[in-house]
Specification:
51% helix, 8 strands, eight-stranded parallel β-barrel, globular, TIM Barrel, alpha/beta, binds erythose-4-phosphate
């Protein structure tokens, strides 16, 4: 399973990249606004820190403007994935860019029907938002299971399921059980994955017992 981080905070990106576990980054207009940074220079900086896919989202919603914005964004680096909304115009842009060899991340997916359309449009990634579905008492993870199963039925669907809008470690564990290809998670949830109280208790006991031996390795 690939791990992407869902943030536009460069310090967080650098910190998690240093673990060696980070495979990519996703951003969106809300995250860019939160960062307070200029969009294009920020994406350039992120691309220098992370060699995997870096998703940069178009701001327009009409075909012609999205297409022009995508052309600007994809010039930033070869590993920029253009993020387009799950709309007819967004998928039109997706098809053209994919045919041209550019990675595309189709965002704001909330149904299996939408995921089928994105795969047919040649999307590199489809981003179903599990947390936002859970928020309205719909089963976000059931959607992941459905999409993974549907894609497995067709060898010619190369689209990777990128589980987005993650709220907690269980979203990641369950998505992994289902065989989702990628998760994009807030940094805080990735850090939670390390934690278990028995690890902390066990480590404290080992440190104490080692001190009793009076030995040193270095
Ligand atoms: C995905 O690419 C989105 O940026 C993100 O996961 C949305 O998450 P949210 O529902 O926490 O805003």
């Amino acid at each position: 399973m690939k791990f992407f981080i869902d943030t536009a905070d460069l310090d967080e990106i650098k910190d998690l990249a240093s673990t060696g576990l980070l495979d990519g980054v996703t951003t969106n207009p809300s995250l860019i606004a939160k960062s307070g940074r200029e969009f294009i220079p920020l994406i350039k900086e992120i691309c220098k820190v992370v060699s995997g896919p870096v998703s940069a989202e178009v701001a327009a919603t009409d075909y012609a403007t999205m297409r022009k914005e995508a052309d600007v964004l994809r010039k930033i680096a070869d590993h920029v994935a253009i993020k387009v909304p799950m709309t007819p115009d967004g998928l039109k842009v997706c098809k053209e860019l994919s045919d041209d060899g550019t990675m595309v991340n189709v965002t704001l997916c909330f149904s299996a029907a939408q995921a089928i359309l994105a795969a047919k449009a040649g999307a590199t990634f489809i981003s179903p938002f599990v947390g936002r579905l859970d928020d309205i008492s719909s089963d976000g993870l059931q959607l992941i299971s459905d999409i993974v199963r549907i894609y497995e039925n067709y060898d010619y669907f190369d689209t990777q399921v990128l589980v987005a809008s993650i709220r907690n470690p269980l979203h990641i564990i369950d998505a992994a059980k289902m065989g989702a290809h990628v998760i994009t998670s807030p940094p805080s949830v990735i850090r939670q994955l390390y934690k278990h109280p028995l690890t902390d208790i066990g480590l404290a006991a080992f440190v104490k017992d080692w001190e009793k031996t009076g030995q040193k390795i270095l």
